[in-house]
Amino acid sequence: MKKIVVLFMVILMTFSFVSCTNDTKQEETAANVEPNQENTEGKSEDVNMTIAVNAEIISLDPHNLSDTLSGSAADTMYESLYDYKLDMSLEPVLATGYSVSEDGLEYTFNIREGVTFHDGTELNAEAVKYNFDRVMDEEKNLRRRRNFLYVNSTEVIDEYTILIKLDSPFAPMINRIASLSVISPTALEEYGDQGILTNPVGTGPYTFEEWTPGDKMVVRANPNYWKEGPKIDTLTFKPVTENGARIAMLQTGEADYIYPMPTEQVKTVESDENIKVIEGPSTIARFTFLNMTKDIFSDVKVRQAINHAINKEAYAKVVKSGYAVPLTSHVPTTIEYQSPQPEYEYNVEKAKELMKEAGYPDGFATHIWAPNDTENMKGMQFISQQLAEIGIDVEVIPMEEGTLSDSIYSPQTPEESEVNMWYVSWSAFDIDGATTRLFHSSNIPPTSPNVSYYMSDEADKLMDAGATEVDPVKRAEIYAELQEVIWNDAPWIFLGSDVLLSAKRATTEGIFVDPSGGIIATEASTTK
Amino acid sequence: MKQYVLKRLLNIIPIMLVVSIIVFMFIHLIPGDPARIVAGQKATLEEIEIMREKLGLNDPYIVQYKNFMVGVFSGNWGTSIKSNLPVWNVIVPRIKPTLILAIFSIIWSVVAGISMGVISAIKRGKLIDYIVMVGATSGISVPLFWLGLMLMQIFSVKLGWFPTTGVDSFSSYVLPSITLGAGITAMIARYTRSSMIEILKENYIRTSRAKGLHEFMVINKHALRNSLVDVITIVGLQFGFLLAGSVLVETVFAIPGLGRLLIDSILFRDYTVVQTVLLIFTFQFIIINLIVDVLYGIANPKIRYE
């Protein structure tokens, strides 16, 4: 025993005496091997592309996910009856068309013929019904169930026709249908609800190759895709949370596309001709809830004064590095039925005047909540500084996210609620999703995030009417009126809507980021 | 010695039980409702209620703890709240990257750290001593993510020697382990140096030199070996920390390791994963401590076990 230890020590020492100089040599040899490896990899016939993203893929079950990135990853393999195009309009995918009954209660969809799932199963009305039944199952409580609460039943009419019956008319139904990806029923039977997570089988442009939770997901081009698909062999989604590392990957060409592109680093890559930065509009609204049950925010004049006291251009510059546009309604312009309102121009004098009229000539003290990361801190500090100009003393209170969520949702009544201002963002596909949860009086905490405790009969009526009106022209009128009411009542500080930044290698084609932040790579190709 | 090890191994059981209670209490006492966080901002109240019921979050703490322990002993560690995958499927792929990173880092830190320490102890007060110690101090003070990003810019982007991120080949581990080991190298160098300096003043060193022993033997056989006890303590402790994963290095180099898993799971209030990961960490810390204690005796036979 003792001898072995001595031997070990001696080896260690001889090693260590030379190691100071040797250390670097070892690295060099290791380094020399590397480019060769890359060369051989490059010679293989596969064309591989990599998208580096800033978060992990949480789930690949398209019926049971709630984050955009997991949605993007699942969408490489799955498709729905209808889907959004880049401009947020809907196009038929696995359906060829649909019709709605006069009372708005029955939707009939024609299913595309000749489409097969990756496992060979044929797409037909039965398969679609199977998916509806799964997502609507209360027992399973999948996350997408919330989009189909109005659906009463589904019925197979013939091989390629399915009828969907609603309990009550629900105008955004077609938008919600778009959120239902169709999974192969055979695969669901075989793998079960948990197994399908790691064995995705859809009809999409890519088939599943591998996924290590927490690390990369690889998909391969589907040779039997029913329309024109990707012109590459494999596509990899790789989570790289550190901004600097994501940029480095793009610089070396290890990544062909990165999203999001960190706003503060745009200048560093601008001179690099191999890299192109892409800007696009978003469905993300950034705002601050003003709790209207608190005395200080109960007067509409105070809330309007606050909106006049905030310089939205400066907000975009200071907090979002210039990558935001002012909100012109409570929903961004990317949302259908958005109707722009007259702006709350930046005018400190007018704001002071309104504060005086409301009985607060010297302002008051309040506080603002948000998560404790850098960008949210910046946003809160900006609001605090701007409101100081009109005498409102805003204490910035950053919180860990779970704690914040508890503080918002555990109070059972408005009286118990302690929140004054909450700096937050919201993103939705349709105007109902971007409105009802945030403004309807039935959606105050703990039910939903109407944290302004905005309770207006007028707005409630309009929201209900908009959700059930099937005629698009009448619907547009209702929503225009609703947006005016909300805008004038100013239950929020209307701040801005994000501009989405992504970046690609100059050789990359066919990869896009849609306004909701989803990555679309159906027709990915590269000239590298 | 065998008896000692056996006794220590048996001790693990009560320790783990106590730790499991503490871990359980901590994660349930921090505010935040996993059902709401996992369901997302847009979830309906009904959806959250059903989820809470399903996850057993409405049960009294005692019942929840009992279920957790029953699960542990029956081998059913549960399902990750966040991803809906079995806990072990989430954790197991994370162990390898962290383990490789920890081993690489510790090897180069021990080799470089001890040599730097020995050299500067022998050349105490000379230029080389100052250079090494300045290097060591910077190694401790430099922020890990900065060092990581600098190395990445130089060796990956400019020179193209190593991949920027990931764990696809062994060369991917070079930059992360240099980054991770920098601080530990510095620490080992400083401990070795101070301990060597003390020992080189001892009488028996003078004796060995007086009897004409070669300087190499004096340093290696007598001085270094006696100064190793301190170093082993440091290495053991640091290795324990490394196995718990370095969140910063794992984040910078996009390494899917245990450290990042733990942080992400805490943010998500993914109770089942947090509990299991923390129990694993505790267990490996106990084992490493035991190994360190045994190594003491080998480095210094004067230490006896009872």
From TrEMBL, chain A:
The keyword Glycoprotein does not apply. InterPro entries: Peptide/Ni-bd, SBP_5, SBP_5_dom. This is Glutathione-binding protein GsiB. Part of the ABC transporter complex GsiABCD involved in glutathione import. Binds glutathione. Residues 1-21 form the signal peptide. The keyword Cytoplasm does not apply. SUPFAM superfamilies: Periplasmic binding protein-like II. It is found in: Periplasm. PROSITE patterns: PROKAR_LIPOPROTEIN (PS51257). Keywords: Periplasm, Signal, Transport.
UniProtKB/TrEMBL annotation, chain B:
Part of the ABC transporter complex GsiABCD involved in glutathione import. Probably responsible for the translocation of the substrate across the membrane. PANTHER family: DIPEPTIDE TRANSPORT SYSTEM PERMEASE PROTEIN DPPB-RELATED (PTHR43163), GLUTATHIONE TRANSPORT SYSTEM PERMEASE PROTEIN GSIC (PTHR43163:SF5). It comes from the Bacteria. InterPro entries: BPD_transp_1_N, MetI-like, MetI-like_sf. Residues 95-292 form the ABC transmembrane type-1 domain. It is found in: Cell membrane. This is Glutathione transport system permease protein GsiC. The keyword Coiled coil does not apply. Pfam families: BPD_transp_1 (PF00528), BPD_transp_1_N (PF19300). The chain crosses the membrane at residues 12-30, 99-119, 131-155, 170-191, 231-256, 276-299. Keywords: Cell membrane, Membrane, Transmembrane, Transmembrane helix, Transport. It is a multi-pass membrane protein. Belongs to the binding-protein-dependent transport system permease family. Its main location: membrane.
